[in-house]
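Section 3.1 - Work completed
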Amino acid sequence: MNDGGIVFGQRALSLAVLKGRFLEHLAFLEVTPNMIGEALFRRNE
C-alpha cells in the first residue's frame, strides 16, 4: 500500500511540475509576441 502511495505521490508531483511548466510556457507565448510587436512598432516610428 505504501509503495502505491509513493508512486501516486510522484505522479501527482510530476503532473504539478508539468502543469507549472505548461503555464509558464503559455505566459511566455503571451508575452513574447507583445514584446516583438512593441519592438517593431518602435522601430517603425
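Second construct:
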Amino acid sequence: MNASPAASQRVAFDPRELLRRARKRRNFAEKFDSFSDAYVWVLAALIALAYLFSALFGMLFVLLGEGVAHQELPSAVWRMQDLSFVLLMLSALAIFRLMIYLGPCGLSAAKADWWLPLPVTLRAIRRPAWRNAMLTGLFASSFAGALWLIVMLGLAGSLPLPVAVLGLACFAAAGAGLANAATAIQAMNRQAAARRICDGVGLGLLTAVAVLWLLLLFQIPWAQDLVGAVAAATLDPAAWLFALLVVLALGAVSTYWAYRHVERIPGPALRLAGEHQQLAMGTLMQGDSRGIAAPAQSAISRRMTLGSKLTAALPVAWRILCLRLLRSGRWHPVAGFLLLAFSLAATVQRIANPLSAAAFYLVLCLILAFSISATIAPLVSEKQLTQPLGISEAALVREATLYAMLFSAISLLLLTGGLGLVGMIQLERIWLWIAAIVVAALGCAAASIAHARRAERDWSAVLGGATNDAAMATQLFMETATFIRAAATFSPIFCLVLSPATPIPPLLWVAAMLFGANSLIHVAGRKRGGAA
C-alpha cells in the first residue's frame, strides 16, 4: 500500500521517467506484442458486432413473430419502437454502473505491488489510469450504441446515415463523460451512493413506463402524442444533433469534475479497482459469470440471518442449498426474466406469438443452468465438504440434483402458466405438458451439475490450439455442448408450443430423455465424479 501523503511529498521521484526509459528500451517484438493486444480486442469487438447483427435481427424476427399468428391483447398498447428510448436510457445506466464497478481508475496487480509501497507521488500513475478509464467508457458506450442502432435498423427497416453517425458520436461522448463522472465518484469514495442513485433512476424510469402504459391503455390523447413524438425523435437527425451538443456540454463538466478530483484517489482504491477489472476480464475470457455475479460482502452480512428459521427443520444439504438461494439472491435472474417475459407478452404488440414463447423457454433454460449451478457448486465440486457434513459425495450430488430438478420444474411451471394466461400457448393436453416439463427439468439439472463442475477455462489456450476454423468450431461446440444438450431436452415443449395439435414423435421423447438421463443417474447415486 502507499505509505502516506507526507512520504509522497518528501520524495521528488517521478515514475514517468522510469516508464519512459522502459518504453524506449523495448525491442520490436515487445512493441508488436503491445500493439497486438489492443488489436485483438478491437478485432474481437468487430467480430462480435458482426455476429450480434445477425443474432439481433433473428431475435427481432422471433419476438415479433414474423409469419405466424399472434394474439391481439387489449393490454398490448406498446410498439417495440416506442420502447427504444427506454432501452437507450437503461443502456446508459448499465454503462455507468459498469464504470463504477470497474473503478474506473485502477492498477493491475503487478503495477500495484510495485508502485504503491514506494513513497513516491502517484500523479504519474493516476493520469494514465484516468485516460484508460475514459477509453474504456468510450468503447463500451460505442459498442452499446452500435447494438442499439442495429435494433433500430431492424425495427424501422432503414436508418438514415446522419442518425447513425450522430448516434455513434453521441454514445462515444456519453461513455467518456460517464467514465469521468465515475472517476470523480471514485475519488470521493461515493460508489455505494452512486449505485443507489442508479437503482432509483432505473426504478423511476420503469415506473414512468408503467404509468404511460396505463395512460395509453385508457387512450389518453396527450400520452399518445408524447409517446409518438419520442419514438419519432429517435430517427430524427436534428434531435440527435441536439442530444450530441447536450452530451458534449455535460461531458465537459464531468471532465472538469474528474480533473479536480482524480488526484485524490488513494492507492488502495486503485488496487481494488484493478482487482475488479481483472475479475471482469477473466469473466469475459472464461465465459463464466459466477465470480463477477457474486454478492458483495456487505450484502452477505445483511443476509446472514435471512431464512434461518424457515430452513431449520430441513436436512443439512437442503438447508445449505436453500440458504444459498435466499442469501445469495440466485433466484433474482429467474424471477426477473419471468417478470420481463410476462410484461413483454402482455403489454407489447405482436409479442404474444408461439415463436416468442419458444424463445422464452430457451432463454429460461440457459438462465436456469447458470443460476442453479452457482447455487449447487459447493456440494458437487468441493469433495472436502463430505467430512464436516458427515454425508457421502454421492448423497450430496443426489440432493443437489433433486434441488435442481425441483427449482427448474417450478420455474417452468410458472412460465407455462403465465404464457397460458395471456394466450401465447395452448394447454389443452395438460398431461403432455407435465411430462415435457419434467423432461426439461431433468435436462436443466444435468446441465447445472455439469456447469458447476466446470473448471476455469483458458480461452487463449483452448482457441490457440485450433489449427483452422473447423477445429476452432469444434472446440467451441465442445464448450457449449452442455447447454445444447439441455436445450435438446426442451424439444417436447417446443413441439407443444409451435404445433399444439400435432402428436409428438416417440423418438423425440426418447432423445430428450437420453439427454437428461444424467440427472436420473445422479439421483440413483451411480455416478460419483467427473463431468456430467
